[in-house]
């Protein structure tokens, strides 16, 4: 579910992301190879929730790939092997119970209209994950972005790592990792830094406490 209708999403994505799409893809290649891929097995089934232009799901190494979004343009950017689900994420997902090993989402929960929609989305993630399956969620942390958080037209739901941790715990997940400061805030209207900087940043945990403005929560279905 989004507070914006599909045509609004199409216009927002085109305005905000089209000019940096290739750079974003290269950034995600580093993020996967140097960090996220270790949480995802080569034979596992993965859903990218709020997939955008598919920078994550197109490059992740796994057995089967799904992507969910309401942007009608999204399928045109996805690899042919990715199954696209165009639906409201707060309604019942078009997937069987226990059919996923990983639900990944980046910079998506803040676009939901309210906490009730987020709660229903978490319920569906838990239903569709197999026992031991992981929810991996990152997003802007309102704790460190009190003003800049609202500079994006489609930001509606303000979250911190602790509020999301409590939300997933009340939905039956066990939290394995909770970082209040992970990545810097955004690539929108930012310089395209050399990717070696990102590789170095991921290895330097002290830098996270200075530049990190996004949370990372990794939770598991018992």
- Strand percentage lies at 15-25%
| Helix-strand pattern | HHEEEEHEHEHHE
The residue ranges in which pLDDT falls below 50 over 5 or more consecutive positions are none
Strand order of the largest sheet: 3-2-1-4-5-7-6
Would you tell me the overall average pLDDT? 91
Computed structural class: alpha/beta
Largest sheet: 7 strands, mixed
Oligomer state equals single chain
- CATH superfamily label: Vaccinia Virus protein VP39
CATH third-tier fold name = Rossmann fold
CATH architecture designation: 3-Layer(aba) Sandwich
* Shape assignment: globular
State the share of residues found in helices, binned by percent: 25-40%
CATH class category name: Alpha Beta
- Give the total of domains: 1
**Alpha-carbon distance between the two ends:** 26 Å
Could you tell me the number of beta strands? 7
Describe it for me?
- 36% of the residues are buried.
- This protein starts with 5 loop residues before the first helix and ends with a strand.
- It has one domain (6-220): Vaccinia Virus protein VP39 (Rossmann fold), CATH 3.40.50.
- The radius of gyration is 16 Å and the shape is globular.
- The chain has 222 residues and is α/β, with parallel strands linked by helices.
- The protein is built from 6 helices and 7 strands.
- The model has no long low-confidence stretch (mean pLDDT 91).
- α3 links the parallel β4 and β5 (129-140).
Fill in the keyword field for this structure.
222 residues; alpha/beta; Rossmann fold; 7-stranded mixed β-sheet; 6 helices; 7 strands; 30% helix; globular; methyltransferase; Methyltransferase type 11; transferase; SAM-dependent_MTases_sf
